[in-house]
């Protein structure tokens, strides 16, 4: 139903972490696994409803309130949080905190250092994590070998599973996956909450998870569409994602969205249409029907290593540095989201990101930029004298440009700013014994629909 040709759909790390964190805050999966499962399906259902509704009513602009800078910070914080959560399987720790903040996780890790770490588990995890990182480097150095990092996780699972099976390392304390149900999951429509206290919880969790999933999917779709020079319909994408999650909630699935890593492999493999998603679905179906018994001896450490390897690229330091150079307010949003996720929780980090992004929009609307214009020599063009040092002001004339539309919320600020410019310029020309300012021209073309292009004011 979507318009993107390259996006690959499935579970992704950030949405999985967000959904799991929000669900655990309401229901303990160990004491109430059935209720936990029902709430997950309910959240997925309402995540789909949210996504489809945004697309149907053409409200996709709402996700633009989550700026790129905020997403960079949120993703980086989520990546660190996800990686820290994997230390349980990577180190072989049995008792681990349910909290996601960095202080609680590190405290739990170091408390288990003397008696809770398993050296065989650490050896398996570290060895295959090194292999995965090396394969990623090989794939980056040669485009022809793009398939190496794509197939490396599968090789890791097969080799580690075989190794544990022949050595019976599970008898030495290496934790394994154990039993996996074989076959297609049953219908879950009857498990969705439509009444009761858990309905409100499911709606709240679903809306948050749906918005994050939507933001990620649309961003990925736009990225690959730009690379192939075609356009995607954002509202159509939202309806497609929403319908997918609604149907998924009825067939024992949780929130899915576009995966950047899978989409990148899809793109590099030369996919041209969304049929690639159908092929992936068939492979998953065959795995569920015939291959699940083979995963019994898969060590948890290899799964942790695969997840850590997958989330490392989400920490985009270069993007953060660029944001700092371009816009300090955007950088504050980026850092706020980052620290909110790692020190408090995923939902708080997301809230900080949205709040700072929204505050920046309000600030730009209520405090628009103004600039003094000067004439570019030998042309009829006027430009900002701070950006174009060669531009010269016309004697006796002050030309000011307002770089925003004028609303009731910023009209007083614009007036005060213009008066300040005028006062400062009059002081300068007086000190330099230059002709006094006789004309004030305010360039407001296309800023106001009900005024002419220029205001001309002659001081008394």
Automatic annotation (TrEMBL):
**The STAS domain covers which part of the protein?**
387-445
Instruction: Write down the membrane topology.
Output: Multi-pass membrane protein
The listed locations are: Membrane
**What superkingdom does the record give?**
Eukaryota
The question of whether Transport is a record keyword is answered with yes
A Pfam family found in this protein is: Sulfate_transp
The record's GO molecular-function terms, alphabetically, read: symporter activity
Question: This chain belongs to which protein, by name?
Answer: Sulfate transporter 12
Q: Tell me the organism.
A: Arabidopsis thaliana
């Amino acid at each position: 139903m979507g318009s993107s040709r390259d996006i690959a759909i499935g579970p992704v790390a950030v949405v999985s972490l967000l959904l799991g964190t929000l669900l655990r805050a309401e229901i303990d999966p160990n004491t109430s696994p059935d209720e936990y499962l029902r709430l997950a399906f309910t959240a997925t259902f309402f995540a789909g409803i949210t996504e489809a509704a945004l697309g149907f009513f053409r409200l996709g602009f709402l996700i633009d309130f989550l700026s790129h800078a905020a997403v960079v910070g949120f993703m980086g914080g989520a990546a660190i949080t996800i990686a820290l959560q994997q230390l349980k399987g990577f180190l072989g720790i049995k008792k681990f905190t349910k909290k996601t903040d960095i202080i609680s996780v590190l405290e739990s890790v170091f408390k288990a250092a003397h008696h809770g770490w398993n050296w065989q588990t650490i050896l398996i995890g570290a060895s295959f994590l090194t292999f995965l990182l090396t394969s990623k480097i090989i794939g980056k150095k040669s485009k022809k070998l793009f398939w190496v990092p794509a197939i490396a996780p599968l090789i890791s699972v097969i080799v580690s599973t075989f190794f544990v099976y022949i050595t019976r390392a599970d008898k030495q304390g290496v934790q394994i996956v154990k039993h996996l149900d074989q076959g297609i999951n049953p219908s879950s429509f009857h498990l969705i909450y439509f009444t009761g206290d858990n309905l409100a919880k499911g709606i709240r969790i679903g809306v948050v998870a749906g918005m994050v999933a939507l933001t990620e999917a649309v961003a990925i779709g736009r990225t690959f569409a730009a690379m192939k020079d075609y356009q995607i319909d954002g509202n159509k994408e939202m309806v497609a994602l929403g319908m997918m999650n609604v149907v998924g909630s009825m067939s024992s699935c949780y929130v899915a969205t576009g995966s950047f890593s899978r989409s990148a492999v899809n793109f590099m493999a030369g996919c041209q249409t969304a049929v690639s998603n159908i092929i992936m679905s068939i492979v998953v179906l065959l795995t569920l029907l015939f291959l699940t018994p083979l995963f019994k001896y898969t060590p948890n450490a290899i799964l942790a290593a695969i997840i850590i390897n997958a989330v490392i690229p989400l920490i985009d330091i270069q993007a953060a540095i660029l944001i700092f150079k371009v816009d300090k307010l955007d950088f504050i949003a980026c850092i706020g989201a980052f620290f909110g996720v790692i020190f408090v929780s995923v939902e708080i980090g997301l809230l900080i990101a949205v709040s700072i992004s929204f505050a920046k929009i309000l600030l730009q609307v209520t405090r628009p930029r103004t600039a003094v214009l000067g004439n570019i020599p030998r042309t009829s063009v006027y430009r900002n004298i701070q950006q174009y040092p060669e531009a010269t002001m016309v004697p006796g004339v002050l030309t000011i440009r307002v770089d925003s539309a004028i609303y009731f919320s910023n009209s007083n600020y614009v007036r005060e700013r213009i008066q300040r410019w005028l006062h400062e310029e009059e002081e300068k020309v007086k000190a330099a014994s230059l002709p006094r300012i006789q004309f004030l021209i305010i360039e407001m073309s296309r800023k106001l629909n009900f005024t002419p292009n220029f205001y001309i004011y002659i001081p008394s």
